[in-house]
Design goal:
Length: 212
């Protein structure tokens, strides 16, 4: 799908070094982005940027950003674009030695996607591939309620908040699928089954894309 040039940060298994590689892991709440990101980071030695995790760390640390984000997150709404985009830019700029990033939970709106493209293209390190996890809605709700028992996350506790998050996803985030499809970067991946089976599907997408 990509020429080697487009895949400037070439990534292969078997010990061949990653030069520079950026990946977006995409999907609705509960799709397993965080779980699969951990495995991708480990395999490809990338840096994780989970906007949800960064927001939660800021909430815990009671920073200005955390206070601002908290009310949106607890209601299941997206944090405003300008806040999120600024945070992501700072995160990337602070990590000059990163070989590349797994963007997890970002972008979540078309404006965020455009801002990310603009920012990364200016640095000469574009997004190489987008992996979109597809999971049935019943399974998503089940996973989130289950996670809520362990995570203690306020936004995982009530079905009403989970519903708001799905609505936000459908209205604001899902249009990004078409955005990345037009760029030829989108890979849809079946997100049901065992964690290892799903991971194997993701790896095969990455390797197919980097080999073509
Ligand atoms: P999940 O994918 O399970 O909803 P996340 O940890 O990715 O969990 O996100 C939790 C919440 O953090 C979101 O519901 C939203 O309020 C906020 N958030 C995370 N990423 C973004 C983003 N890119 N833009 C706006 N809000 C975000």
């Amino acid at each position: 799908m990509f020429g080697r040039q487009a895949f400037a940060g070439l990534l292969l298994s078997d010990g061949i070094q990653v030069i520079m590689f950026n990946l977006v892991i995409f999907g609705p709440p509960g799709a397993g982005k965080g779980t699969q990101s951990e495995k991708l980071l480990d395999k490809y030695q990338l840096t994780h940027l989970s906007t949800g995790d960064v927001f939660r760390a800021n909430i815990k640390g009671e920073t200005e950003l955390g206070l601002l984000a908290k009310s949106f997150i607890d209601r299941g709404e997206l944090v405003p674009d300008e806040v999120t985009i600024g945070m992501v830019k700072d995160f990337v700029e602070d990590r000059v030695s990163a070989r590349g990033f797994v963007f997890d939970g970002f972008p979540r709106t078309i404006a965020q996607g455009e801002a990310l493209d603009h920012f990364l293209n200016e640095r000469g390190t574009p997004i190489n591939i987008v992996l979109a996890l597809e999971v049935d809605e019943d399974e998503l709700v089940r996973r989130l309620l289950e996670r809520g028992k362990i995570s203690g996350r306020a936004d995982d506790q009530s079905e009403a908040t989970i519903r708001t998050r799905f609505n936000e996803y459908l209205q604001k985030t899902e249009p990004l699928l078409e955005y990345y499809e037009k760029q030829g970067k989108l890979n849809r991946v079946h997100g049901m089954g065992s964690i290892d089976d799903i991971f194997a599907r993701l790896v095969s997408c990455i390797e197919d894309a980097s080999a073509s």
